[in-house]
Amino acid sequence: MFVETLDRQPVMARCGSSPRGSSAVAWCALVAVFLAGTRGLMYRARLQFGDVWGSLLDDRPTQVMFYALYAVAAAVGWRSRGVVDRRVLAPLTVLLGVLTTSTLWSIEWGRTLNQSLQMALATLAVVLLASGLRVERVLTALVTAGAVAVVLSVVAAVSDWEFSTDRKGRLTGVFYNRNALGLVAAVLAVSAVLWWGQRRDSVRVRATAVVLLASALVVWSRSGSATAMIAAVASVLAASWMVAWKRGSLVARRRLGWLAFVVGAVGVVGVLARGVVAEWIGRDATFTGRTSTWGVVVDAWQRRPVGGFGFFAGWFDPEVRAGLERIDFNHWEAHNGYLEVLMGAGVVGGLALVWLLVVVVRAVWRRRDHEWAPTWLAMVVFALVSNVGETNIAANRLVWFVLVAVLATAGAREPSPYGRTESPSPAVSAG
Fold first, then answer.
1. Virtual CA dihedral for 29, 32, 34, 40, nearest 10 degrees?
2. Phi, psi (5° rounding) for residue 179?
3. The whole model's pTM is what?
């Protein structure tokens, strides 16, 4: 199994059912934040109250809902917060600071300020909430949020809600976008596998995890999102390798290593020969316009390489719009988290992001003997891979919240029996 949990309290507890009420409320708040990270539910709720003028990213009622939720969640998390090593928090703070500071030179300062501040507030909420909970409860919060989103998407499709499928009949559920649904389904699938591996001694958990995994795979297959499943496969391989490493099985590690190599090699060949491969499988050789969009983004970044255009502001640049028009795509994001940061905050933002990712990986590796190491590694790998094909380093992105939760838990001090963390130097309050 992935971990052997010491505390066997019910993990799908109702809000307020914990011996420590603040911990249970924090768990519920984290579920709500994870759900907000899917965006679709909030967008659906907003559209019930009238038409949206312009983009949802600029719609004031929509943004107020996000800010209000994150502010309440942060307040709840403050009461039950744990202690996170300042060495782990430093790169996260720097990255968020750079993205926010890019407002000063942004070509569309309102969009940059709103998106960067919202991302910072949501990140703070996740750090406060996750650091004060046991890792198992963070995982079950993610499982619960994913299950709710997937179930509602199935209900939307069965009930024939507007935009629950796209023009090609692919499932979008409550998300208006098949790739968003695919990512949520993949996150649920990975979380279910990890939960099953952790609690294999519980028949109830095993049965629930299998049902959730099957449901997630069915929903994913209807969405047709390739990025999501590639990230899911990579993350499960990473978790399996860590399990083999912890058990000292050299043979298993070698086999998994070769398997990962073969999968990676096939992926590289697929990218290099994507035209032929795409024809075989009936898909677009540009990955639905991604490679063409990346070319536009790189060209734009070369014009402002140091500081970028301002976080999420580059899409208002006339030359960028003209480039997208030439390739016949109307994207407003890079479909690549790394290029999004590079275009928005330049080399400065890119270096800050690299620092953060290095620190997260090191935090997980330093605690590789910890019972939760396979889960942490799996989620980090999922975030790293999924950001190649989707923008997941931004406000209101579930994958970003998962990465932050890994940072908050892997970088936290050892938890006490009540879910709080001890605070030996050099650590500071996560607030």
1. -170
2. -70, -35
3. 0.85
Handedness of CA 407, 257, 216, 169 (dihedral sign): positive
What six digits make up the tokens of 271?
């990218």
Q: Could you report the per-residue pLDDT of 315-327, keeping only the tens digit for each?
A: 999 999 999 888 8
Residue 284 has pLDDT above 80, yes or no: no
What is the residue whose two structure tokens read 């860590």? 242
Q: What are phi and psi of 85, to 5 degrees?
A: -60, 130
Q: For 19-67, write each residue's pLDDT tens digit.
A: 345 688 999 999 999 999 888 888 877 777 777 777 777 778 888 889 9
What are the structure tokens assigned to 122, written together? 């949501």
Q: What is the number of alpha carbons within 13 Å of residue 230 lying toward its C-beta?
A: 19
Tell me the domain boundaries of the chain. 21-429
85 forms bridges with which residues in the sheet? Answer: 427
| CA–CA dist 129, 28 (Å, integer) | 10
**In sequence order, what DSSP letters do the residues of 49-102 get, joined into one string?**
TS---S-TTT-HHHHHHHHHHHHHHHHHHHHH--EEEHHHHHHHHHHHHHHHHG
Residue whose C-alpha is closest to residue 364's, from 219, 238, 262, 197: 238
Give the DSSP letter of residue 103.
G
In the structure, what pLDDT confidence band is assigned to residue 253 with cuts at 50, 70 and 90? Answer: low
